[in-house]
Design brief:
mainly beta; six-stranded antiparallel beta barrel; five-stranded antiparallel β-sheet; 1 helix
Length: 203
């Protein structure tokens, strides 16, 4: 939040540990300054009312961050206290072709703050390297948008949290272009998610 204006950077998920949430590290950009989460309180008979301009913000603080795997643990600050009953798993038991559910705000960078649930399939399981350290990732058969970064990837069959959405695959090609703030190279059905198995060492 800057100058009383809320800028949505991504999605976070409440964990089954008191007052702790998880998101992608790149969402918070390594800083606690002006860091808040928005509570989704704009429901009217099951509909999200996009005409409501006011929103409830809760300050959060970075508790642990893993920039190599793009994971970040946040804690709720102030008088708010909460935890979920989400079951933590990992990417190991997910198989290509298996259905997963992703939840996030796919157009929040354009000012449309609508919590959206989507279902897709695991396309592949891969190992990616960052600074020589390999990490387990899932490739999801869906096109991700910036506001979905940090969102949960839930195994549909048992409701287990198995991954955190990182973002669309971007080829490392020099000389790319941007059209209306969109990199055309990201307009494809390939999104990466990192295994939440790495959270165990951060909690």
């Amino acid at each position: 939040m800057i100058d009383n204006t809320y800028y949505a950077a991504g999605t976070c998920t409440l964990l089954n540990k008191q007052n702790l949430l998880v998101t992608a590290a790149h969402v918070v950009n390594g800083s606690n300054e002006n860091l808040f989460i928005r509570l989704n309180t704009n429901y009217d008979s099951g509909y999200q009312d996009t005409t409501i301009q006011q929103c409830q913000l809760v300050p959060v603080k970075i508790e642990a961050i893993d920039p190599l795997r793009d994971l970040c643990i946040l804690s709720l600050q102030g008088d708010v206290s909460a935890q979920s009953n989400v079951k933590l798993g990992n990417a190991d038991r997910a198989n290509p072709g298996e259905a997963v559910t992703v939840i996030g705000f796919p157009h929040s960078n354009l000012g449309r703050i609508v919590l959206t649930q989507q279902t897709c399939e695991v396309g592949a399981k891969i190992l990616l390297s960052s600074k020589g350290i390999k990490s387990k990732h899932l490739v999801l058969n869906i096109q991700a948008r910036p506001g979905q970064s940090g969102g949960p990837v839930i195994r549909t069959s048992d409701g287990t949290l198995i991954g955190i959405l990182i973002g669309a695959y971007v080829p490392t090609i020099n000389g790319g272009i941007s059209i209306g703030g969109i990199d055309p190279q990201t307009l494809h059905q390939t999104t990466h998610a990192v295994s939440v198995g790495y959270l165990e060492g951060m909690l």
